[in-house]
Specification:
This protein is about 35% helix and about 25% strand. It contains 16 helices and 17 strands. Helix 6 runs parallel beside helix 10.
C-alpha cells in the first residue's frame, strides 16, 4: 500500500483526534482525503479545509484516490452499512465502533474472507491498550484461561470518585459528564453495554467463539447505593465494573459483566479514574497485566493510527482460534457468589439461590450473600432491574491462586 489517502467517516471528538495524530505521524505516509459528516454546515463553518467535508458517502466511495476507510461515527447500524460497503468494494477499513463490531462480527469475518479485504478494530476495545492484537498474536494458543478487567473508563471514573474521593454517586456522575467521560445520557456506560460489546470482541480473539449480546449476563452500576459503598468499605474492598471471560474446563467457558468486589491484592484494584486495566491469565504464565487510557480523543486516535500503520504492513486478523478443532463452548451453567442488596423487593424469596452464606436485615436496606447459577441470574433479570436492587460479584475463579 502506497500513500494512504483516508476517507474518514465522522468528525466528532475521536475524528478530530485522528486528524491530529495523523498530522504528527510523519512515517504513516497518510492523509485525510475526504470527511463524511452528518451536519455539513456545522463542520464547514469551523474548519480551515471546508473542501474536505461532505455529507454524501458516495463522494468517498466513488473517489478513486481514497484507498482506506476509517469509520468513527456513533451510530452502530450506519457504521455497519459503511463498513460492509467498504469491504465488499475491496477497501480496507479501520473502525472503533464496538457496538457495530460486537453485533455483526460473524458477518464481518465472513465479508473479510469472501472479499479478501482487511478490517482492523483494536480501538474498539480498551482505547489505547492493544488487547486484540496481543490476543491474536502473542496469545495465539489454547493455554489462555481468562481475560478479565475494567473495560469502561466512564464507570471507572465514577467509582474512583466515590471510593477514592468520598463523593456520592450522583456528584461523581455529574462530574464525569462535565469532563466528557460520560454522555448526557450515560446509560450505554452505566448499564454495562459498552463493556459488554468490548468483551464480546475480546472473547472471539481469546477463545475463538462468538457469543451474541443477548446471551450474556450484563449488569451495571446505575442502582448502586450508599449502603453498598459502606458495605464494600467495611470489607476493605472497592466496587469496580468488571467484564470477564473465563475457561472453566477444557471444553467450556463463561463470560459476564457485573460490578465486583475487588480486594487490594488484585491488579485492577489500583486502576482508577478513566483508565482501563486488563488481566490475561494462562496455564504457564499465570497473570499478565495491561494498563492504559481506555477512552478519550487522543488515546483512541492513537489506536486507530496503530491499525492504519498495521494495514500499511499488510497486517490482518487471522482469527486462528476459530479454526481450532477443540474450541470451548459457552455455558451459563456456572455457580457464582453474589452480594444482593434490596429494600422492598423480596430477593430471598424470588432468587433461586443454591446457598445463602450471609443475610442482613435493617430499616434502610437488606442484603444477602449467596451462591446462584449464572443462568438463573439471566432468567431473573427483570427482578434485578428493580430500582431498589443492586448486585455485585464476589469473585471465586482462581481465588486459591491469587492469595
Amino acid at each position: 500500500m502506497k500513500h494512504l489517502n483516508i476517507g474518514l467517516f465522522g468528525y466528532g471528538t475521536v475524528g478530530r483526534g485522528i486528524a491530529q495524530v495523523i498530522s504528527r505521524a510523519k512515517n504513516a505516509h497518510a492523509g485525510i482525503g475526504r470527511i463524511c459528516v452528518r451536519n455539513l454546515a456545522k463542520h464547514t463553518a469551523d474548519t480551515d479545509h471546508p473542501e474536505l467535508f461532505t455529507d454524501n458517502a458516495d463522494d468517498i466511495f466513488n473517489d478513486p484516490n481514497i484507498n482506506l476507510i476509517v469509520e468513527v461515527i456513533d451510530n452502530a447500524e450506519a457504521a455497519w452499512e459503511i463498513v460492509r460497503r467498504a469491504l465488499v468494494n475491496g477497501m480496507p477499513v479501520v473502525t472503533g465502533n464496538k457496538a457495530m463490531v460486537a453485533r455483526h462480527l460473524p458477518e464481518l469475518i465472513e465479508l473479510q474472507r469472501e472479499h479478501g479485504t482487511p478490517l482492523l478494530y483494536d480501538a474498539s476495545s480498551c482505547g489505547s491498550i492493544p488487547v486484540i492484537r496481543n490476543l491474536e498474536e502473542y496469545y495465539d494458543n489454547d493455554l489462555l484461561l481468562e481475560v478479565k478487567g475494567i473495560l469502561n473508563g466512564s464507570t471507572n471514573y465514577i467509582l474512583s470518585r466515590v471510593f477514592d474521593h468520598g463523593e456520592d454517586y450522583a456528584a461523581a456522575l455529574a462530574k464525569a459528564q462535565e469532563l466528557g467521560f460520560a454522555e448526557s445520557d450515560p446509560s450505554f456506560d452505566i448499564d454495562g453495554l459498552d463493556a459488554l460489546f468490548k468483551l464480546i470482541i475480546i472473547t472471539v480473539h481469546a477463545v475463538g467463539t462468538y457469543v451474541p449480546p443477548e446471551k450474556i449476563f450484563t449488569y451495571g452500576i446505575g442502582h448502586i447505593h450508599e449502603s453498598d459503598i459502606r458495605y464494600a468499605r467495611e470489607k476493605g474492598v472497592k466496587i469496580k465494573l468488571v467484564a470477564q471471560v473465563v475457561k472453566i474446563s477444557e471444553t467450556q467457558f463463561t463470560m459476564f459483566v457485573m460490578p465486583e468486589f475487588v480486594s487490594p491484592s488484585k491488579y485492577i484494584y489500583s486502576v482508577d479514574d478513566e483508565y482501563n486495566g486488563v488481566v490475561i491469565r494462562g496455564e504457564c504464565y499465570d497473570r499478565q497485566f495491561m494498563f492504559g487510557k481506555g477512552a478519550g480523543a487522543l488515546p483512541t486516535a492513537s489506536s486507530i493510527l496503530s491499525d492504519i500503520m498495521a494495514l500499511r504492513h499488510d497486517y490482518r486478523y487471522e482469527y486462528k482460534k476459530m479454526s481450532y478443532i477443540d474450541r470451548p463452548e459457552y455455558t451459563d451453567d456456572v455457580l457464582l457468589r453474589i452480594y444482593a442488596r434490596y429494600t422492598g423487593t423480596n430477593l430471598p424469596a424470588l432468587l433461586p439461590t443454591v446457598h445463602v452464606h450471609e443475610q442482613y436485615i435493617s430499616k434502610e436496606s437488606n442484603y444477602i450473600v449467596a451462591d446462584i447459577r449464572l443462568r438463573d441470574l439471566i432468567e431473573c433479570r427483570a427482578i434485578l432491574d428493580a430500582p431498589d436492587v443492586f448486585i455485585a460479584n464476589i469473585p471465586q475463579f482462581f481465588i486459591d491462586k491469587d492469595n
